[in-house]
Amino acid sequence: MPPAPGIDSGYPALNRLLGGGLPEYGVCRLKATAGIGEIRLLLPYLTRRAVDSSLVVLINPPGRPQADFWRKFGPAPAKVLNLMIPDRRDLLWCLQQCLQSGCCSAVLVWDCDIETRHCKQLQHAAYAGNSCLWLIGDQTLSSIPLTLSLSASPLARGIRVWVTKRKGGWPAGPVDIKWQDRWPDFYPAVGHSCQPGSRFGELGY
Fold first, then answer.
1. Cα–Cα distance for residue pair 176/155, rounded to 1 Å
2. In 31-178, which residue ranges form alpha helices assigned H by DSSP?
3. DSSP 91
4. Four-point Cα dihedral 78, 35, 185, 160, nearest 10
5. Which of 52, 91, 115, 145 is deepest in the core (most CB within 10 A)?
6. Which of the four pLDDT bands, split at 50, 70 and 90, describes residue 197?
7. What is the phi/psi pair of residue 134, to 5°?
8. Per its UniProt record, what InterPro entries does this chain match (predicted)?
9. What is the Cα–Cα distance from 86 to 35, expressed in whole angstroms?
10. Are the CB atoms for 37 and 154 separated by under 8 Å?
11. For residues 148 and 96, is the Cβ–Cβ distance under 8 A?
């Protein structure tokens, strides 16, 4: 498979760190504790990907997505499909079907432990369907052939991101991303009486 083209992440500093942007297709990893801003980090990218009739699929998220949030800040709620799939075998089947369907521009799954053979199958499915799978969570994964692996930790008004692995490149970072730069109305400047993120709704969970 050829290297995946980069898509604007919505954060210039992250684009520079990645040498262009986030992958258009493939299997990617975001190592992050749930609720630190993992959806926020990917939101501009997801919005760019959810064009025409393509869907963004959320599988086993740690909270229930809120329609009002997605209506204001991300892909329209009608383009966001939320699934809860507890059985691992069913989950792997669903991931492959979503990725290769050509109908899902991005698939996000939380706390999913996959093996190398599964990852290779999902890579081919993602390439066939021009889709990107994001494995999100703080669990330790075995060495699998990822297109990109990011690690993130929370900041008071943002998130710190490292590139820990990427196809055809080297680890890099960290880079600090400030939410206020992207959403100034919901993250007032330092010194403002409003608490950071208090009006943002913690990303619609």
1. 8
2. 38-49, 67-73, 88-100, 116-129
3. H
4. -120
5. 91
6. very low
7. -115, 120
8. P-loop_NTPase
9. 20
10. yes
11. no
User: Would the pTM of this model clear 0.85, i.e. be above it?
Assistant: yes
DSSP state of 199: T
**Which of 31, 43, 59 is closest to 153 using CA atoms?**
31
Among candidate residues 132, 171, 149, 153, the one with its CA nearest the CA of residue 24? 132
**Spatial separation of the C-alpha atoms in residues 93 and 129, rounded to whole Å:** 15
| Helix, strand counts (H, E) of the chain | 6, 10
DSSP 41: H
Amino acid of residue 114: I
Average pLDDT of every residue of the chain:
88
Distance of alpha carbon 32 from alpha carbon 137, whole angstroms: 5
The 10 Å Cβ neighbour count of residue 168 is 8
Q: Are 49 and 22 in contact (CB under 8 A)?
A: no
Encoded tokens for 158? 């943002």
Concatenated DSSP letters of 10-29: S-HHHHHHHTS-EESSEEEE
- Per DSSP, helices labelled H in 4-87 are 12-18, 38-49, 67-73
DSSP 203: G
**Residue 112 · residue 135 · CB < 8 Å:** yes
Choice among 40-49, 53-62, 136-145 with the minimum mean pLDDT: 136-145
H or E element at residue 172: strand 172-178
